[in-house]
Amino acid sequence: MKALPFVLSVIATVVAVLALAATLSSRDGDVAELRARVAELERGARAAPAKPGAPGAAEGAERPRRTRRNRSPAPSDPPVEAEPVVPVVRPAVSPATAGDAAAGNATGSAQSFLTGWVRSFETQPKGSDFFRLAVEAYAPDLVADLRGYLADARQPPALRLWVAKILSAPRFSDDPYAIDALVDALQTSPTGDLAKAVIDGIAGGGGPRHAVRLEALVPTTTDTTARMALIKGVAATAGQHANAALLRLFGREQHEGVRAAIVASINPLDETSGLQLIRRAASDDHYPVRNRGAERLGVFRSDDARALLDEWLAWEKEHAVRARLSAARAQQDEIPSYDVRRVLGPPDVPTPGADHVNAWCPAQENAGTEWLELTYAKAVDATVVRVYEVYTGGAVARVDVRSPGGSWRVGWEGTSDLHGGGTFEARLSSPGVAVNAVRVTLDTGRHKGWHEIDAVELVGPDGSAFATDATASSTWGQ
Ligand SMILES: [Ca+2]
Q1: How confident is the model at residue 395 (pLDDT cuts 50, 70, 90)?
Q2: How many angstroms is it from 178 CA to the middle of ligand 1?
Q3: Cα 343 to ligand 1 centroid, rounded to whole Å
Q4: Does the CA dihedral 154-159-162-167 come out positive or negative?
Q5: N or C: which end of the chain has fewer CB within 10 A?
Q6: Which CATH fold would you assign to the domain 340-472?
């Protein structure tokens, strides 16, 4: 019996080759191309039955499908339909393709790709990459069908995993129907690979709608690992409301390990709820929970956060927690990457031309006008303002300067000839006047990319100075 599929595959291949040969010879008689196609079809027919899951087999089996679809309809398809284990003749799984193509019915094509993909799992453990890509392309037309496959426990696990990934794509993050499909899958399969794939997918592409549904599942999920995964999904998708959601979950959670996981997921972008949650964690009887709270406290740098750390450190007895609080204090004291304070002092980006955290960077890429205002402890009779424009460069549009006790005046205005990262020197229109403040205005639309400034130096005949204080129009990550 094992020989039957192979014999059928060879017969089908020969018929397919003859059909292709007729098509090609009637078109242009390109013998070389014909031979190449024949070799491909033969490789596909021989490889697939022998090693249905091997990468080479999958490739060999799929290549003819593309070829066939681009050529004339194959009259030999019906016998192929009758023998499903012969991948090379599988183009016949899309009888709808020819008819729908003729009718210009895109949805019909989508359905035929889906049918081909589902059937490919009969011969390839991971399914056909080609049909999967086609299904992904048409996925918005197939959500109802994909939802059905995801919910159907009889379908191959690999197929359901892929469907979960497809429906988790960012383009479905606002589609309640797709979101429901994913959450329904979690309700019926709260643990295991499928649940993990669904939550990973949701965490990667989901939004606040997902967060609400995931949060609702937490109280009814008894498995602690699954509950932690749900919490990770909530934290990843709830955006600015993540810490508020985590705070609610923390209040209901009985398991100390899960409480620790909740605290570890605190989002640094929401300090108000973040500090409330850390305060709850600080009074937890289980020190691993306090450990996570002490660690996360380091990401908040406000006076409130520093005060909470001082207050906590005054009574905390557990050595491990104290050590983490000390590390958090060091983190609070550290200047964040790309912070405006990174522009103070002499340049410290080792290799201009590359992105580096030691430089100030505006919040957004190519957002238009940005500015950087600097003050200097020592006034300099300046002739030049040297801008260490280490990444992208060429954005300086204007440099204003101010003398001690004076008002702002334009020191330089124009178009920089700097391309790429480097140092731009603005020669002041009124040189030799004492300056202790500089405002650099950037037009970040002049050169596409992230614009980063490492330092700004006042230069005069009697010496130079670097900035001691700075503010900016915006800062990356803040
Ligand atoms: Ca710097």
Answers
A1: very high
A2: 46
A3: 4
A4: negative
A5: N
A6: Jelly Rolls (2.60.120)
